[in-house]
Specification:
Length: about 900
């Protein structure tokens, strides 16, 4: 059995770093989306093909073929997530830092957050093997994306998440504890242990994906076995504030930092004093430079890695370049006091700008060899199969080479890879997925990470895919619910980012971090006949929760009592927590977007994939996999509105139910779509378009109450001519009109991210506005304020932001007693009924909260965080 195209796994959001502006793709650099967005998951395609071969096609699969290129889609999604926070202009450094300080000074409400998702999350849960699930793929227990990993020889492992901070294990993995919650930045770029055992943290994830946030600099933890990071441990001054940090490297008493603002260095002995800017290829684009306000400024000084010659620490090679290509891309070395591009002598390693993109170095412990992974802008822009230039070795041990290519994407595809189909082969996301490390005891033993994990024990002569993307498509795979993944062995989650080798009880292990968390296996581990590892262990035991939610839904559990809590996640599908669960399950796969859940029956669920690819189930998607042989046994249905097929919707598009009628739904793409069949909908044709925003405009928020619909749009949505607006009308298609929102009017010309309608009065509505006010944003009409109120159906608006910090605002919710809760990029704030000022809710770390919902009885508030799972708080305590 083969799976022709993988189910798309998307990345979008993690916890916000408090002192940052986004580091994401500008419109001019992002790869554009093709005409066909990806729709329903690969397993749906598999079933569709089976049905076609049998001469019968299931109607609920007919219109959602997954024929997009995910690498392009990732770039597009990255751009769109950035737009919400940066348009209509460029955000100045320090915006998040100021917001975090102001938020910390707000008075707090009563009540404490209750953590709901701090338990194992089984992506292979055998209860949920329905048509849109990834269960049986072999990833096992998962959590949110890990950007970096470090390990020592005493069994201590450190995992740096994309947005949920840094975590420590004292037992070789598992039983984790957070150790960076006091920092203003929870986004990890790099983790590294130095020769004296200190743990160095570079904040600001550097994968340039949709939810990679800038950080607040570099921190050192002198006693990592026991201590926790604090602001007092910051190295240097604020030179690296509002950057991303890709790598930290050591040599000759110096720590080197590869950042989004060039390469910097600092003494490892004296931690005070400023960082030194070693090299920035385009300094005029740095803060304070003559072109600092250029929209492309964040992409003009990207440094990816530093290679220090082990025999002579004064000899250093810098890997510089934007992954989509720029004239400055290349390798640089120092001649006297000047850094110059290396133009020859590298051997197989490219020296031209088109051949050098994202790069990762690794050297052997004995100094005899250097290895490198190189992603090629030329390949990225011209090769639909892969962006990988190759994996290389310098057998001289010097980073100046000469270098020899030891792997390309075709060779890796033939090494037992799951990615052998044209359009999605090893390295197709090499700008996002990279790690590289060498076994300290053997310079020929190397682990490389791209979408999968690869291993060579002979210096690159032969490779094995020890961590395949998933097990679908292999002859050993079966959907049989009596097994995790058929006769295949457990693999890791896909999309690799961090790696480390450490020891525990005298045995060496390799630890990998990816979009599903942290996994380990013995360094001298075993493989089966296909070259797949037989001994991966998931370390995501539920004590580490870095899950990146976009949404949350709550309903009464019809079978187990209590409540069913579900939510859509970055690259980890849809989680389901039933009333008596000790382990969360996953009933949809890929990337989960918005969620609708029936308050009266929590197994009635609608889950958005991306670009309005909506799936619906009425039994929580409980299934034993019988649909593989009998399509009629599928209990999930693809019901995407037509804007999904035409690509006319945002990556995470808005979806809402009417406050007065849970069976009346509203969805937004280019059009405003309505359907009145609730969870009984079975086809995308059941949606009706009631309003057309017009070509090039896309919904950013929708809400409905009693048939009245509010819909916000943007178009263009980037900072090149950004425009936004609001349309109001009725679900029957009547009364639609545009609200006049002049650029310099009361409502700023920024991304409109959410509506909150008063359940007692449909004319009374609140508006959440994303981005930063004009103090931080260089752009036309950036204005001020984040929360606005209308009492006349949106005709006029009043700024009620008052003492709310200047922080991107993601959504809002009116409570049953008339209070107003607002989700921001740095937590939740609340305005009590009859009050005009705001209070901070609880003590969440600096994490983005993207959506708020209440329990069916209205007494509990639920928060979907993008990096630390789902939390709840009793509303009666918010006083």
């Amino acid at each position: 059995m083969s799976v022709p195209t993988r189910r798309r796994r998307w990345f979008t959001v993690c916890a916000l770093t408090a002192s940052a502006a986004l580091a994401v793709i500008p419109p001019s650099a992002a790869s554009g989306r093709g005409a066909n967005p990806f729709g329903v998951r690969v397993l749906g395609q598999l079933a569709h093909e089976r049905e076609q071969s049998a001469g019968a096609a299931a109607p609920h699969l007919a219109a959602e073929d997954d024929d997009g290129n995910e690498a392009d889609e990732i770039a597009e999604g990255a751009d769109q997530y950035a737009e919400a926070r940066t348009s209509p202009g460029v955000v100045a450094p320090g915006a998040y830092g100021a917001a975090w300080r102001d938020l910390s000074r707000l008075r707090s409400t009563g009540g404490d957050w209750h953590h709901l998702t701090g338990l194992p999350y089984d992506s292979d849960d055998r209860r949920y093997r329905d048509i849109d699930s990834n269960s049986s793929g072999g990833s096992g227990d998962v959590t949110g994306r890990m950007a970096a990993v470090a390990a020592d020889d005493d069994g201590y492992v450190y995992a740096g998440s994309a947005g949920g901070g840094v975590w420590r294990s004292r037992g070789g993995g598992g039983h984790w504890r957070p150790i960076s919650d006091r920092l203003p930045a929870q986004s990890t770029g790099a983790l590294a242990l130095d020769g004296s055992g200190r743990l160095w943290l570079g904040t600001g994830e550097a994968t340039t994906n949709a939810d990679a946030y800038l950080g607040s600099g570099v921190y050192v933890l002198t006693h990592p076995h026991h201590g926790t990071f604090s602001s007092r441990g910051r190295v240097g001054g604020d030179e690296l504030d509002s950057t991303t940090i890709h790598e930290l490297r050591f040599g000759g008493g110096t720590v080197w930092a590869a950042t989004s603002k060039g390469v910097w260095s600092h003494s490892t002995h004296r931690l005070s004093g400023a960082w030194k800017l070693e090299f920035a290829p385009n300094p005029e684009f740095l803060p304070g430079g003559s072109r600092a306000d250029d929209p492309d400024a964040p992409y003009k000084n990207i440094a990816n890695d530093i290679a220090v010659d082990p025999k002579d620490p004064a000899k250093v090679v810098l890997a510089i370049g934007w992954r989509s290509g720029d004239d400055y891309n290349g390798f640089y070395t120092r001649s006297g006091h000047t850094w110059t591009r290396i133009t020859s002598g590298l051997g197989d390693l490219p020296a031209d700008a088109d051949g050098v993109g994202a790069v990762t170095f690794a050297r052997s412990a004995d100094g005899s060899r250097y290895y490198a992974i190189d992603q090629s802008p030329e390949q990225l822009n011209t090769n639909p199969d892969s962006g990988l230039e190759g994996i290389f070795v310098s057998k001289s041990g010097s980073p100046t080479g000469p270098w020899t290519k030891i792997a390309d994407y075709k060779g890796l595809a033939a090494s037992g890879s799951a990615l052998t189909s044209p359009g999605y082969m090893p390295g197709v996301q090499a700008w996002y997925n990279q790690f590289l490390t060498v076994d300290p005891s053997d310079p020929r033993h190397v682990y490389a990470g791209l979408e999968e994990v690869y291993e060579t024990k002979d210096g690159g002569a032969t490779w094995s895919t020890v961590g395949p993307y998933w097990n679908f498509g292999f002859s050993c795979w079966s959907i049989d619910p009596a097994r995790q993944t058929g006769d295949c062995h457990q693999t890791t989650h896909s999309d690799q980012h961090g790696v480390a080798i450490g020891r525990h009880h005298g045995k060496s292990y390799v630890y990998v971090g990816n979009d599903g968390g942290v996994y380990k296996r013995p360094v001298d581990g075993s493989q089966d006949a296909s070259g797949h590892a037989t001994d991966w262990t998931s370390l995501n035991d539920g004590t580490i929760d870095t899950l990146q939610y976009y949404s949350v839904g709550i309903g009464k559990d019809p079978d187990h009592g209590g409540l069913s809590v579900t939510g859509g996640l970055q690259d980890n599908g849809q989680s389901v927590l039933r009333g008596d669960d000790k382990v969360m399950g996953s009933n949809f796969g890929g990337d989960g977007g918005d969620t609708l859940t029936d308050p009266g029956n929590g197994c009635n669920i609608a889950e958005e994939y991306v670009y309005l690819a909506v799936q619906v189930t009425q039994n929580c998607a409980v299934n034993d996999g019988g649909w593989v042989s009998d399509p009629a046994k599928a209990t999930s249905y693809g019901v995407a509105p037509a804007d999904n097929a035409t690509g006319e919707a945002r990556f995470i598009a808005p979806l809402a139910a009417d406050l007065k009628n849970p069976a009346a739904w509203v969805a937004g793409g280019r059009h405003v779509w309505v359907q009145n069949h609730g969870y009984a909908i079975r086809s995308g044709s059941e949606w009706t378009s009631v309003h057309d925003f017009g070509e090039g405009r896309y919904a950013t928020a929708v809400a409905a109450s009693g048939g009245r619909i509010y819909a916000a749009w943007c178009g263009p949505c980037n900072n090149q001519g950004f425009a936004r607006g609001i349309a109001v009308g009725n679900a029957d298609g009547t009364g639609w009109h545009d609200i006049t929102l002049p650029v310099d009017g009361t409502v700023p010309n920024r991304y409109l991210s959410g509506f909150a309608v008063d359940p007692k009065n449909a004319d009374h509505v609140f508006l959440a506005v994303n981005g930063f006010s004009r103090h931080w944003t260089e752009g036309p009409g950036a204005g001020v304020g984040h929360v606005f109120e209308s009492t006349n159906g949106g005709t006029t608006w009043k700024d009620i932001s008052a003492d709310l910090p200047d922080v991107p605002t993601d959504s809002a919710l009116v409570t049953a007693d008339g209070g107003l809760a607002v989700a921001t990029d740095l937590g939740v704030v609340y305005r009590a009924p009859g009050r005009t000022t705001w209070k901070r809710v609880g003590d969440l770390p600096a994490v983005a909260v993207l959506q708020l919902k209440t329990s069916p009885d209205g007494g509990t508030l639920y928060a979907a965080t993008h990096g630390r799972g789902i939390y709840s708080v009793k509303l009666r305590h918010l006083r």
